[in-house]
Amino acid sequence: MEHALRVQFARLAMALANPVRIALLEVLCQGERGVEALAAAAQVNLKNASSQLRELRLAGLVAARREGRQVFYRVADEEVVGFLSTLRQLARHRLPEAARLIAGYFQAGDGDEPVGRDELQARLRAGTVLLVDVRPLEEYSAGHIPGARAVPLTELEGFLDGLPDAPEIVAYCRGPYCVLAPQAVRACQARGLRAWRLEDGFPEWRLAGLPVATGLETAA
After folding, report:
1. Residue 119 CB: number of other CB atoms within 10 A?
2. What is the three-class DSSP state of 162?
3. What CATH topology corresponds to 103-219?
4. Cβ density class 165-189: b for 16+ within 10 Å, e for less
5. Which one from 29, 173, 178, 188 is the annotated catalytic residue?
6. Rounded distance, CA 194 to CA 158, Å?
7. Of 61, 53, 55, 52, whose CA–CA distance to 82 is shortest?
8. Which long-range contacts (CB under 8 A, 24 or more apart) does 207-213 make?
9. Is the dihedral of CA 38, 44, 50, 54 positive or negative?
10. CA torsion, points 199, 205, 207, 213, in degrees to nearest 10?
11. Residue ranges of the domains in the chain?
C-alpha cells in the first residue's frame, strides 16, 4: 500500500519534470487559455504544447473544456498554484544554481527592494502609486489587482510617453520569477522614474485571498 501511494506521489513530481510543462502551468495560473495561445506563450509548437498539456491533465494538475473545435485549459484548482509556488521556493533555497540565477537577474539592477502586498495596498489606498499590470491583455482581463492599469510590456514606452506627470510606479506580472515586471521597472528607471516591482505576482495575490477584478474596464 505504501509503495502504491508513493507511486502516485511520484506522478506529480514527474509531471513537472519538464520546463515546458512548468511554463504552461505558469501561464495557466493567470487564467484559462486556449492551446494555441498557450503554445505561443510557452514558445513551443502546437504539437509539443498539446503533448505536454496532456501529461499535466493526466496528473490532475489541469482541466480542459471544449468549445467547438477549440480546447481551453485551466489549472485544476488553487492548490496547483500553491504547489507551483512551493516548488519554486524550494528550488531557490535548495539548488545553488537556481539561487544564483535569481540573485543575478531578480535581485540586481532593480534599485530598491520589491514592494510587498501589504505595502502596495497601503500605497493604493493613499493614492501615492500608479500600479501597472504588464502581462498580456488576455491575462489582465481574466483577472487582475483592482486599480491596476493594463500596460503590456510591449506598450510600456508609449504609455510612459503619455503620462502627464511622473508618478511612482509599481509593476507586477505572472509571479516572483517572471521577467516582465523587472524589465518594466528598468525601463521606468531608465527614464528617471521611481519604480518598483511587486514581490510576487497576480496568482500569489489571488491565492492570498485578496480582492480580484476582471475585464478591461479599469484599464481606461
Report:
1. 16
2. coil
3. Oxidized Rhodanese; domain 1 (3.40.250)
4. eeeebbbbbbbbbbebbbbbbebbb
5. 173
6. 17
7. 61
8. 207/78, 207/81, 207/82, 207/85, 208/117, 210/117, 210/121, 210/145, 211/145, 211/146, 212/143, 212/144, 212/145, 212/146, 213/143, 213/144, 213/145, 213/146, 213/147, 213/148
9. negative
10. -160
11. 2-80, 103-219
Query: What is the SS3 assignment for 155?
Result: helix
DSSP H or E run through 200: strand 195-201
- Closest by CA to 72, choosing from 39, 35, 100, is 35
pLDDT in tens, 122-135: 999 999 999 999 99
Mean pLDDT of 20-34: 96
Q: Is the pLDDT of residue 163 over 70?
A: yes
Question: Which distant-in-sequence residues (6+ apart) come within 8 Å of 164 by Cβ?
Answer: none
Report the CATH number of the 2-80 domain.
1.10.10.10
Residue 217 is predicted with a pLDDT of 61
Question: What is the value of pTM for the model shown?
Answer: 0.90
173 is catalytic: yes
In a 3-state reduction of DSSP, which class is residue 62?
strand
Amino acid at 113: E
